[in-house]
Design goal:
Length: 119
């Protein structure tokens, strides 16, 4: 069975959708292996007690994904944490982890979807 690897960044779980896609692909002989990350869980408290997104912790979390070097698709919601993080920020951080990644980025939102192929 052929394996495909996906990382998905979203503040709302897409697990049910990913499980359905995984089942569909399995029928076609493809095993989908994925990691879903909620960026709201990667925050740290500042001196006055506010929670702020931690780019450093996010980058470390990405780097710890065992299949990151074999990744086929990186997908992210565009609207993540108001005023702190959007889909383009996520792509920038990911690109620091894997600067030679030349496959697909998918950036989506409730309003639109865009497929980026970096070459």
């Amino acid at each position: 069975m052929e394996q495909r690897y996906l990382i998905l960044i979203d503040e709302q779980s897409q697990d049910n959708r990913l499980k359905r896609i995984k089942t569909f692909l399995k029928n076609d002989g493809i095993e989908l292996i994925y990691k879903e990350i909620n960026p709201q869980e990667i925050t740290k408290r500042d001196k006055i007690g506010d929670l702020n997104f931690s780019r450093e912790n996010f980058k470390r979390k990405l780097e710890r994904i065992p299949f990151i070097q074999r990744l086929d698709v990186f997908a992210t919601d565009y609207n993540l944490i108001d005023g702190q993080l959007d889909g383009m920020d996520v792509v920038e951080i990911f690109s620091q982890c894997l600067p030679n990644y030349r496959k697909r980025f998918i950036i989506y939102s409730a309003k639109w979807i865009k497929l980026l192929k970096i070459s």
